[in-house]
Write a structure and sequence with these properties.
alpha/beta; UDP-N-acetylmuramoyl-L-alanine:D-glutamate ligase; 311 residues; binds adenosine-5'-diphosphate
Length: 311
Amino acid sequence: MSGLLVVGDVVTDVVARHGTPLAPATDTAAAIRMLPGGAGANAACWAARAGWADVRMLGRVGTEAAEWHERALRRAGVRPMLVEDADAATATVIALVDASAERTFLTDSGAALRLSPGDWSDSFLDGVAHLHLSGYLFFAAPGRATALRALRAAREAGVPVSVDPASTGFLKQLGVDRFLADAEGAAVLFPNADEARLLTGCGEPEQAAGVLSRAFPLVAVTLGAAGALVAEAGSVTGRVAAPAVRAVDSTGAGDAFTGAFLAARLAGADPTTAAAAGCRAGAEAVTVVGGRPAEDTPGRAPGPRPLSPRP
Ligand code: ADP
């Protein structure tokens, strides 16, 4: 059993970098790129990038971009398990990035919100050692029902589950208590500092990490350029600094942390060592445009050796 199964969002990111302020009602020149993204799919790609060979991604996409997303996942070393939706387009995010790297998003969740319990089969857990659920699943009724079903099936099968709370805005809409009740039974929680504060009402991430680790056995709180904290059984048990890098785009930093952390844990690392791997991946993520690892190109250092044998 070596599989890492990620369930969550697959998104088409349209990233428009404009050097001058947006000029309403006329043209603004921009460098525009269409990139594969989505918190769940990004985390899967970063786990593969960190060397885990058996990574699988379950998500729902529109027919128009299904093939493109499948190819991108395969190139990243992830086995796509994509459900094609003929009635909704692939989730699309338009990211407007100004000269100071400040980002504004326009979000159309499209097919990603329509992942439904009918798309799930308990047999998806065959050969799976860990299930990761993107928090975005919990913010729409079909996704939430799917996540709860997958979580229950994984618990019954003895497969540990991790959850990324994903978004303070959506957490507020759903309700913190409801999210915490939904995620109950997860073995690992991956909030960033803002999410950890929101989920606990604590002002300090250290305190929040401790509180959350009374409900979830292992909590890794990411702190942006300040690195990450690990907490277990009510107290902080590890602190890791982030490598210093020149950030160009913070999209996917948390997803990179999650993917690399899970890959390291699956390979047998202790939580603090896994957090260090997560921080290295997070630092790498902020140096590239988009939320996925840069694809290997001639002249670029190859990715790390596989942590597990190729199946
Ligand atoms: P999220 O994207 O979920 O908000 P964070 O911003 O906390 O997550 O970033 C996740 C991880 O990425 C951090 O723990 C850190 O290791 C790394 N990281 C983020 N921003 C930077 C940065 N500016 N420099 C170096 N590492 C960073």
